[in-house]
Amino acid sequence: MIPQKMKRILPAITFFSISIICLLISGCDSEEQAVKSSLERKVDSILINMSLEEKIGQTCQRGTSSRVKGELSEELKDAVRKGKIGSMINVMNKDYVEELQRIAVEESPNGIPLIFGRDVIHGFKTIFPIPLGTAASWNPDIAEEGSRVAAIEASTNGIRWTFAPMIDISRDARWGRIAESAGEDPYLTSEMARAYVRGFQGEDLANPSSIAACAKHFAAYGAAEGGRDYNTAIIYEQLLRDVYLQPFHASVEEGVATFMTSFNDLNGVPASGNSFLLKQVLRDEWKFDGFVVSDWNSVTEMIPHGFCADEKDAALKASSAGLDMEMMSTSYENYLKELIEEDKLTIAQLDKMVKNILRIKFKLGLFDNPGFDRNRDDMVLSDEHKEAAKKAAVESFVLLKNEGNILPLTNDLKKVAVVGPMADAPHDQLGTWTFDGEQETTETPLPALKNHLGQSKVLFSQGLNYSRDKSKIGFNDALRTARQSEVVLFFAGEEAILSGEAHSRSNIDLPGAQEELISEISKTGKKVILVIMAGRPITIGNIIDKVDAILMAWHPGTMGGPAIVDVLFGEQSPSGRLPVTWPKEVGQIPIYYNHTNTGRPASNESFVQMDSIPIGAWQSSLGNNSHYLDIGFTPQFPFGFGLAYTTFEYNNLKLSSPEIALGDSLIVSAEITNTGSMAGTEVVQLYVRDMVGSLTRPIRELKGFRKISLQPGESKTVEFTIHTDDLRFHNQNMEFVTEPGAFKVWIAPNAHEGLEADFHVISK
Ligand code: BGC
Known about the structure:
It is built from 19 helices and 26 strands.
């Protein structure tokens, strides 16, 4: 009998020899191909020794809900020992991670290591801004650095797989999960997706501090009807491909290791049983070679969807569609064997699933190095990581209003009133999906302000205990505090639990009595600066005129407090821009900048406000266009919008040519000048419009952006290159083409403004 240890290294020796032989004999054409085929050989040599039970085991993920501490049960250990489990989710006790991995590697039939996964979404212990905030930085380096830090910290716990990035296009602020997204735009989201993948996975997945990323939720989850979580998505295929799938494709190009299916049904087919998505698009078209995991119970949820009769049917439909690993529910564990025995699923199909999983385990280096260095705790919440989180928070803030340039504040203020439920809410400022973030290590605005101005200058009266608080008991004290001060800093928003999964809202005003308290405070005549911490855009129509300045701080994470103080007092200038269109009213939703036009597009000239309609008016639509009578047609703030402490002017838009032939590029440039008296950072945005298409085209599409810093009076020329391939879209025959014709181009500070020019694409 071959000794256990020998048994495990035998395959490795075999691969090694085969690889050398292959290299010598066939002279594999490229280095990449050689690596690929050596990887495939490694995978095959394990597969060949695996029993049916063990193969099925690789497709099963077990775990606990993140709050359950529990003991390691004998049943679980035994299942790992028998090779019945491929992955664990949410095992946070380091001893348990070690013990389970030891059993898998030393005692299971082929010694296949487990892969431990966890939702490390915007930080592990050092929490960065929610992804929507990170997207507002319009700086992919921020996303990359944040996910690098998260990977370094999470891997000290044995976590080698995160369920991030979430790259669902989100055009509906009611949907709680908009907080986890990069917003409404496919280009910006794709840039962020690439950056997250680079950050989590590092340069080499096998590095012990790299963790496998997971592009989720595939697909169209963000298009949930009515913004209600888990709801149906109905999207025509061209729109699906051009908008919703684009970031997923970008993540494949960046080498993302895994994908997660979404909960929703897409055009009638639940994503976890959707072979169009999982086979045709992901494998055949994009050549993805990692593995696909379901969402939590999403396989068996195909039963209530009315798509599967029972668990067995769900297992069949998911596995046949190309879903490799089942999260939490156990239909694979219970039924794959039967399905194979009944010839409903072939061994070849199962082998494919297992190979996809083993490939990633090899890439992660788990076969060579299944353990983790549990003594790297000094890396967690290090000064360096906290500094990175602070920088990210600063860059994520969007200045929405600054009447009379009240901001930045000066340091010679004598008394500042600090009011509002989010001024000192360490748990809530972390935002959604922060299982491992701790309020004890979170720095809130209140102490940061005291630290900055001196204890005695900061008067604090919370007014409301939490964001949903409706009690007015604290109003009088808050008003008294406001009267005693020169300026009021009101920290408003939403508690973390009001956004995120399953936390959609139909009304997205500030909850509780916050609006009332703001209104009362504004009556004191004091200047009011509103800082909003929330997981989504908040409708602020009732209060926007009652405050002097508004800073959108999202849920800013561990270092939110000091970051906010730095920006309020001008040590840093606000440079975030909105990654989503900000609605005036919930009734405008879905509202996004890159929509197509109606035949009667809204305009200022044609807009009829409903109070101006005569009583008893005769029915007529003439002269009316596509708008709401009560709210008009513009958002509160457009996509890409954000103020700075200075002003910028755009001049000299130049095109290298008014015409480009298919296959060629065009250079577009403009000169941006800082016309104010403070240094500032501008996000220069490039938009195009295809004027006539064989399918209606969006009225603007973001095609590039650049973040530049300018001293007062300084100018910089910003140049963009547009290749005709950047203008492609899916036509009626589902071909991805650029159609010759007229285009407009803008270099712009946001989606509603900018310098505009025309160009033509001509056939060669
Ligand atoms: C969420 C996923 C998450 C998974 C594991 C699900 O409920 O939709 O985004 O990764 O749980 O926690």
